[in-house]
Design goal:
single chain; 221 residues; alpha/beta; 7-stranded mixed sheet; 7 strands
Length: 221
């Protein structure tokens, strides 16, 4: 099964080199998508001759991942696996997700909370709300709707290449569950960012993200 690892990157100069070298060790094809980084990310990618695409404008995470899905579809890949460029998603778990695609699942998500209890925090309160809304809309229970570590089978790659009217991971999961695609979560462990600043460090961006997701899940997906 031909598999492509898609790595979105925005200002990931502190982590992208080590992460990419670790991914390369596993032997999968990979594509780093540089979303108009303003730090030294582009320079690092060029100097190390890493396989990458430099976007002409900043698209944000949903746009970047769709670019990866389009690339995978155009190059006839059977599976796409997304991992963040900040080093939070250990490549050691990649084969676990890919194996489930090989077993016939359409969409596999690396979850932090299948075997571990979800902590109580404002961010996890938002996660619980999204889980509840997805349950109401689809009748299916999920544990980690915001996880960016996910694998897509060929049917989902083709669907997302044609149209991806999703803001982020939770409404993409809701869309697939609602339309009968086979979705599975498997346990993974995640690390803290190796550097840079998280999108969710800004409380206004976090609130905006939640509002977009809630509206999308309730009224669109």
């Amino acid at each position: 099964m031909r598999t492509l690892i898609v790595i979105p990157a925005f200002n990931e100069q502190e982590s992208i080199s080590n992460l990419t070298r670790e991914v390369i060790e596993y032997g999968y094809d990979y594509l780093i998508i540089n979303d108009c980084s303003t730090d030294n990310t582009a320079k690092i990618l060029d100097e190390n001759h890493f396989n990458h695409l430099d976007l002409p404008v900043n698209l944000g995470l949903a746009g970047v991942t769709r670019a990866g899905f389009m690339y995978a579809h155009d190059h006839n890949y059977d599976c796409v696996l997304c991992i963040d460029g900040d080093g939070q998603h250990p490549p050691v778990f990649m084969s676990n997700l890919i194996k489930e695609i090989e077993n016939g699942y359409d969409y596999v998500v690396g979850s932090r909370f299948i075997e571990k209890k979800k902590p109580f925090s404002m961010r996890m309160l938002g996660s619980r709300l999204l889980c509840f809304l997805i349950k109401i809309k689809t009748g299916k229970s999920v544990t980690d709707p915001t996880s960016g570590m996910r694998a897509l089978g060929k049917k989902v790659i083709e669907r997302f290449d044609e149209s991806m009217n999703f803001y982020a991971e939770p409404d993409a999961m809701c869309y697939l569950l609602h339309r009968g695609y086979s979705v599975k979560e498997i346990q993974v462990d995640m690390k803290e960012r190796e550097g840079g600043i998280s999108y969710f460090a800004n409380p206004f961006k976090s609130i905006y993200f939640m509002l977009c997701e809630i509206l999308s899940i309730i009224f669109i997906q």
